[in-house]
Amino acid sequence: MAATMEKVAGMSNMLQFMKLIGQLKRVPRTGWVYRNVKKPESVSDHMYRMAMMSLTITDPTVDKDRCIKLALVHDMAECIVGDIAPSDNISKEEKHRREEEAMRHLSSLLPEGLKQEIYGLWEEYESQGSPEARLVKQFDLLEMILQAHEYEELEGTPGRLQEFFDSTKGRFQHPDVLELLSSLNAERDCRMTETHDAKTSPSSSSASSQPSTIPHTS
Predict the structure, then answer these.
(1) Prediction pTM value
(2) pLDDT tens digits, residue range 74-86?
(3) Torsion over CA of 105, 111, 112 and 115, rounded to 10 degrees?
């Protein structure tokens, strides 16, 4: 009887855990909100593509499984504290304190083994205490600027989110990440050049100077 009650309580806690992390699907990424991006991605959107970056990296020396776990856990606390951005004027120490408290609560809902694993993964990422944690941090930044590029394309405003690219300069080291970054930059530069050429071409300026006419319908 006691074992049955314990199992029921355990499943109830697991349900609460799943409901809490489900909030990540409804927490928008603050940086995009502050830049007036329409329909900004959620925190879980961001973490999903980071997990896919971890899964598809070709470096055979990388522990993919650990990277995937780190990607899925690293922003988990934001289901409780929200996505705290640098412009929120909250110190790194206070941000860490809030997230640590949230992770302790989240992990307390899990069975002992999982509790230790989930909290340990979060601590590993926060401290950047392993090669995998440092690689996943690069995925975090790469995913951010890839998303920035996609928003520029969707809006038709190449270059508008340059500040996000500027914030990542010099922060990538892994060869695979650098190759993907190079491809991203090449595509973005091409889009920016095309837009600039279209705006400055003679045909574009002459067309804009012509009075517009409204076609008649019969």
Answers:
(1) 0.88
(2) 999 999 999 999 8
(3) -40
